[in-house]
Amino acid sequence: MIVIDAASAVPPFEQLRVQLARQIQDHTLPVGFRLPTIRSLATDLGLAANTVARAYRELEEAGLIETRGRAGSFVSAAGEASRERARHAAADYAAVIASLGLDLDEALAIARAALTATRPAS
């Protein structure tokens, strides 16, 4: 269930994007689930179609949904595959840290610095 708070300082497209992303990540919306059409969801939520389209576009850019032309938009398996790849990379990193004898705080500081360095400027 999606709830848009018109009084919120958070833009409606962002409220929608966050709620759909959460439902995809916690598997409330399973891989392959067909999302409502943009127009249908916009009508149901009392939003402009462009608002829903923007949320869908950002979810697609994040790999959480995929659009299959006129067939519609579906929850993508790519998001799950990406998380699995990240889990494997983290396990590999943990093994390297253990073999080097570094402590947890230093390992986290190294990872944080690397993540910060690779994050695009906003």
Topology, please?
Elements: H1 12-25, H2 38-45, H3 49-61, E1 65-67, E2 73-75, H4 78-100, H5 104-118
Question: Can you walk me through this structure?
Answer:
The structure is a single chain. The model has no long low-confidence stretch (mean pLDDT 91). The longest helix has 23 residues, at 78-100. The protein has helices at 12-25, 38-45, 49-61, 78-100, 104-118; strands at residues 65-67, 73-75. The chain is mainly alpha-helical. A two-stranded antiparallel ribbon has the order 1-2.
Task: Give a quick summary of the entry.
The protein is mainly alpha-helical and 122 residues long. Helices cover 60% and strands 5% of the residues.
Gyration radius (Cα, Å) is 18 Å
Biggest sheet statistics:
2 strands, antiparallel
Average of the residue pLDDT scores: 91
Overall body shape: elongated
Strand content: under 5%
In the sheet with the most strands, the strands line up as 1-2
Helix content: 55-70%
Number of strands: 2
Helix/strand-derived class?
Answer: mainly alpha
Q: What is the oligomer described by this structure?
A: single chain
Q: Count of DSSP helices?
A: 5
Q: Are there runs of 5+ residues with pLDDT below 50, and where?
A: none
Topology order in helix (H) and strand (E) letters: HHHEEHH
Note the gap between the termini: 31 Å
